[in-house]
Amino acid sequence: MISTVMEHNSVLRPLYAMEKRGVELSFLPYTEEGGLEYGKLDSLLRKNTKALVCTHASNLTGDMVDLERMGSFARKHGLLFIVDASQTAGVYEIDCKKWGISILCFTGHKSLLGPQGTGGMLIQEGVSVTPLTYGGTGWKAIIRICLREPEPSGSGDAECTRYRWSSCRSGIHHGNGNGDDSKERTDADEPYVRGNQGISRNSSVREFQKKERCPILCLNLYDYDSAAVSDELFTRFGIVTRPGGHCAPLMHVALKQCGAGGSTFQFLPLLIRRRKSMRRFGQWRFCPKKDNALNTVRSA
Q1: Residue 287 phi/psi, 5° resolution?
Q2: Against a cut of 0.70, is the pTM above it?
Q3: Which residues, 6+ apart, have CB-to-CB distance to 253 below 8 Å?
Q4: Helix count (H) and strand count (E) of the chain?
């Protein structure tokens, strides 16, 4: 199987579990200067390669993957094309037919505006999926194996499931009821642009962004502890960020953020409703204070 170093652990860990069962893995590399190295795809292809698995956008940097190009490669070599759309479903167009996606995986609690615990898979007709884990089904309880037939409505946790997906459905209609993703994209991009403008003027900030990205900002401030910077952003601007590791270990390695390097944090403008805070963030700049990382932000 071929995958990329941009993947979240939700992709990597199942791959590693399959590796223990004999599946061979190859990872498409990434560089901070050039992004994902599509030109090396052919070098990763083997006679026994069966699938190409990739994210649509990095949860760490926001870098977008060219799914049309990846799908074309998969189609050319007869590979299953499996896509993790957790960061993009609900905001960006995803054309499974055009891009030849065999399986599309997504979560409901991000841009689909649903509750945690929701998610799904769109599986191309004729593609069979074998589960890696097993558990209760709420029906035919005396059977010793996990049945693959669809679970009938009204069984097990069906009531809770209906509630969760009803919430997801409402979120979809709220954010994108007319079938046009332009409004949702605008709502997501506006705070991103404001934040990006604020940090682009500061040489002290190391930003990890490429041209094609979803609205995630990822950066380091010198070698300061990202938790301290995150706390400062919340205290001064009311902006909630996520410091430290982001469950994408191979991407952290590619960006040289491990070992002696500083850690990273990101914020998701799509979730930010305090636009005034974003404007203030764009008017401030980072300033080095070796004695105290909590004093690294001051008025411009």
Answers
A1: -135, 130
A2: yes
A3: 5
A4: 9, 14
